[in-house]
Amino acid sequence: MKPKRRRLYFVLFGMATLGVAAALVLSAFQDNLVFFYSPSDLAERQVEPGRRLRLGGLVEAGSVQRDGSTVHFTVTDLAQTVQVSFTGILPDLFREGQGVVTEGTVQRDGSFLASDVLAKHDETYLPKEVADALKASGQWRDGAENQALEGSEGTAQ
Amino acid sequence: MANLHRFANPNRFLRLSRAILPWSASLTVLLFIVGLYFALFASPADYQQGETVRIMYVHVPSAWIAMLCYSVMAAASATALIWRHPLADITARAAAPIGAGFTLIVLATGSLWGKPMWGTWWVWDARLTSVLILFFLYLGHIALSRAFDDPTRGARAAAVLALVGFVNVPIIKFSVDWWNTLHQPASVSRLAAPAIDPAMLRPLLLMALAFTAYFVTLLLLRIRAELTSRKIRALQLAQASAE
Questions:
Q1: Mapping DSSP to helix (H, G, I), strand (E, B) and coil, where does residue A27 land?
Q2: Crossing angle of helices B168-178/B56-83, nearest 10°?
Q3: Is B121 helix (H, G, I), strand (E, B) or coil?
Q4: pLDDT tens for residues A46-80?
Q5: What is the pTM of this model?
Q6: Could you give the ipTM of this predicted complex?
Q7: What secondary structure letter does DSSP report for B44?
Q8: Does the distance separating the beta carbons of A122 and B82 come in below 8 Å?
Q9: I want to staple B105 with a disulfide (CB 3.0 to 4.6 A). Which of A79, B15, B62, B194 is the partner?
């Protein structure tokens, strides 16, 4: 075999091995690479109270209640829900029906005490007029709903 | 004579790049003027993010170029390792600082975008972390390729690093699909139609073309500079040995 050919096979074999190794490592660390748990994950796992974790999902429409500087709302993945309370400044994008990632601890009563709230938006970009027109004509399919559905599919794997 | 033979191809590259450079440079300027006009003035604000969405027109193209540049570097490194083409090592060496620059732009603009929209400068989710690793891969490549007294040894070590690090490129691309992340999934390159309005897709694609032309111009310039500095070194060595 010519040296060039040998080096070509060596590089190809090396890259293939590396790819397989990376795939194995990443699938082994699957749980640790997840940025947040969905309410369904939380219900499945029976997390002990007091452990810090991130909970993500949609802010359920009509669930936001303000109590002084504390906000109570429900995070849902359209299958399970978790009650969240948070004291502090919410990001601008925080609103009902919008994606959200909260960091905090599970309480004894199963509710979630958040110390941080981050807004998560989806990949849809639209001018305001177009969004309004779609909503007015009834063709609006909420991007946040898609996101939650995709999210729950992702965690089901 | 063997040395002269090695320069045969680079000389052809020098002629070719001299012909391309004026065109790619003027195309860069033109595309940036048109692209920035559409990005900053002739495009609507987003229905949720408002004017902040304009950060996308810099953030997304530089992310694309950061990954394109790494792919160019990895392809050049493979060519250098397998076929020992003299231009390939030089291309990889010239590409690394460009890629590091674009990756830094992605990280900085992403951070500036994340604070008002998500409510945080930085999170350790899979997308952000893998892009940070890309940045460190570029820095490692720059350091390693210049760490040896014998430039060919440095180039070989750096080429291996570039190839190993290439595993990270698909991870960056698919991180938002494989794991749940704070970063949203792809808007443009997906199986369904782009989830982005045509009025906002236009400036994005114009800026992507502008960034690509800019990348080509920078890469050609840097390869030419590297070739010239190697010629100077070769001449100095020849002179020193003649004395």
A1: helix
A2: 140
A3: coil
A4: 778 888 889 999 998 888 988 888 999 999 988 88
A5: 0.88
A6: 0.80
A7: P
A8: no
A9: B62
